[in-house]
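tl;dr need the bound structure. longer version: we got a ligand (adenosine-5'-diphosphate) that a collaborator sent over and nobodys looked at where it sits. i said id run it. heres the input, straight from their email, havent touched it
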Amino acid sequence: MDSELLDLVVKMDECVGKEDWRKGLDSLFSTLRKKFVFDNLAIYSLAAAGGVPEAVYARAIGRGRSKEAEASWGEEIANQVASTGKVVVFSPSGKASVDRIDMPYLLGLPLNLSDGNGALVFVRFGGPEYATDQIPLAALAVAQAARTIEHRSLRENLAQLELARYRAQFQDDFIATISHELHTPIGFIKGYTTSLLRSDTIWDPATQREFLTIIDEESDHLVSLVDRILDSARLQSGNMPMEYQPVRLDSLLRDVVMRTRNRVKAIDVDLELESATPIEADTVRLTQVFDNLFENAMKYAPGTKITISLKVLPDKQVVTFSDRGPGIPSEHLPFLFERFYRVPGHSGKRGAGLGLFICKQIILAHRGQISVKTAPGKGTAFVIELPAHSS
Ligand code: ADP
C-alpha cells in the first residue's frame, strides 16, 4: 500500500467513534473523496422499514456542496445489494445525455449492521465508470461507516438504558421518600393522640400541652408536605397561576428574615441589600422561594452564618442566599433541582426533595434563573436572577 493510501486509511479510521456519528461520517467520506471521486452517497437501512430501504444518511459532497442530499436515486440499487449481498455496479447505457444528471453511474455495496442489512450507494453523475481496483477502497470506507453507525446504536442504547434506570430509580425514590415523609408525622400524631386517650393514665396539664404542641406541629408539617406535593404537580403541568404586581425585593427579603427571626431566635444572618426598584413578581410565590432557601440554609448548614444579598443591576436583580455549611458534592448538582431529588447523607433531616424543584419552577415562571455555587466544606450559595423589566 502506498503511503498516501495508508494515510487515508488511518484518517478514515479516526472518524469512527466520534461523539456525533453524522460528523464522523462526514469526515470519513470527505477523507475518502481525496482518492475516490463521487458526487452523492446515501446509506440505506433495510432493517427498520421491513425491506423498503430507508435512508439513514445522505450527503452531496462533490463539487463544493456538503448538504443533506435527497436519496431516492439509490433505492433501487440498495435493494439489489440487499437481495444479493454483493457489490452492484451500474453504468447508464445509450446515448450520452447533455445533462450529466441523467447519466448516473452507481456503485452499491453491502453494509452489515448488527440489527440488519444495509447498503451504501455512491453516484457519479456523468461518470467516469468505477474501476475495479477502486472498489476495495470504497468497501473499506463502507466497513468504517458500518462501525460508525454501530457506535451510534450503542450510544443510543446506552442512553436509553440510563434513562430507564433513572426512571426506575426515580419511582423507587419517590415512593420511599413520600411514604417516609407521610408516615413520620402521622406516626407522631397517632402516637401522642393514643397516649392522651389512654384511660389508665392521667397526664398532668404540662405534659398534655407538650403532646398537643407536637400534634399541632406535626399536623402543620403534614399540611405543608401535601401543599408542596400539590404545588409541584401544578408547576410541573404549568397550572400554577401567578399574580404579578410591583414588588420591592429588598422589603420582601427583610420581611422573610424578620418572620424567621421571630420564630427561630438563634440564627446568624447578614443582610446585604441594595435599595431596589420594584419589579413585576408574585409576592406569595417569591416569598415561598426565599423561605425555602432560608430554611434549607438553616437545615443543612446549621449554626453557620447565612448571608442574604441583593444586587440591583440595570437589567436584573440578583438575590443570593449563602451559607458556610458542608456544601454539596458536585456529582449531585445536575439533579439538585429535580423533583424528589435529595442528596444522600443528611440522615435525620426531614424533606421530600421538592423545595428546590418548586423554587426553580417559580423563578422560571418569572423569566428568571436560579443556580447553585458550592464548595465541599466551605458552603453553598443559591443565586437567583430576576429580570428588572416585565417585557
Ligand atoms: P429537601 O430539603 O426537602 O430535601 P430540597 O429540594 O429543598 O429538598 O433540597 C434538595 C437537596 O439539596 C436536599 O436534600 C439537600 O441535600 C440539598 N441542599 C439544599 N440546600 C442545601 C444547602 N444550603 N446546603 C447543603 N445542601 C443543601
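gonna send this back to them w/ a short note. The pocket of adenosine-5'-diphosphate is lined by residues 296-297, 300-301, 323, 325, 328, 336, 341-343, 346, 351-357, 380 (CB under 6 Å).
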